Amino acid sequence: MVRLSFTPALALLLSLPLTVRAAPPATEPEKAAPPHQTWSFDGPLGQFDQKSLQRGFTVYSQVCSACHGMRSVTYNDLSGIGLSRQALTDLAHAKQVPGPPDSMGQPTMRPGLPDDHLRSPFPNEAAAAAMMGGVAPPDQSRLAAIHPHGADWLYAFLTGYHMPPPPGAPVVPGKFYNDWADGHLVGMPPPLMNGAVQFADGTPATVAQQARDVTTFLVWASDPHRTTRHRVGLYVFAYLSGLLVLAIAWKRKIWNRAKTRTTQDADD
Ligand code: HEC
């Protein structure tokens, strides 16, 4: 029979996807989690340490912003780390940003305004890559949010450079050895140095301190309105708890009255 002779071929065909799939994928070595740090903003009730945020902004604006933009944050948002209206307006004003074209259609520049975003210092990604040996510095708006273990990883990464690299590590021109970079090599030179910035509050600017503060700032920057949201959440919670207490008191009162009446009815 014709039908029977097809059966072995059919069986072979059906088993094919199974055989092809059988080889297990080469298991990638599990990446170690960065050491856990204690952060002021940890947990649902965590609050950002404002002093640390301000020191972190100092590190961002004096070091990181030479290469990285932070487009999702405006100067106005910096009121969230405690900068006064005057201070953030002055900061914005000190920057020159592209303005509208003039009457001849030529590009112009204008002083920054509080509504402006923290721009990349490079005109575009290609220019940034060309200046930085092939890799553009990523925008820092969401850095803390996109990495698993965001804050812990950032801190480990910023303090994880080895100069010179450990013996036996691959040496690639234009790349730097870092314990926490992919393949241990990254195109960013170590950005932090002891004492490279000065903190207005007198805190000694060690590499570890700068890393901790700029990480705090980057976590804040990945969600600048989180503090306000938490505060509103707390108010709503307190209000609803108040309502609950009132509701219970009211229920008791009504039931007490009902009970008294029933007892009176029974006595009659
Ligand atoms: C001299 C320019 C320069 C400065 C200054 C600089 N960076 Fe970078 N950064 C780069 C470049 C270029 C890359 C992309 C490197 C790569 O992907 O190999 C990068 C990448 C990064 C990454 C991503 C790494 C990854 O693997 O995802 C982080 C995080 C980072 N920078 C943080 C910072 C912080 C924080 C500061 C300030 C303390 C800073 N950078 C200052 C040039 C710079």
Automatic annotation (TrEMBL):
Matching InterPro entries: Cyt_c-like_dom_sf, Cyt_c1
Annotated compartments: Membrane
Secretion signal span: 1-22
UniProt keyword list: Heme, Iron, Membrane, Metal-binding, Signal, Transmembrane, Transmembrane helix
Region described as Disordered: 26-45
Keyword Transmembrane helix: yes
Keyword Metal-binding: yes
One Pfam family it belongs to: Cytochrom_C1
Positions of transmembrane segments: 232-250
The protein's name: Cytochrome c1
Provenance organism: Acetobacter farinalis
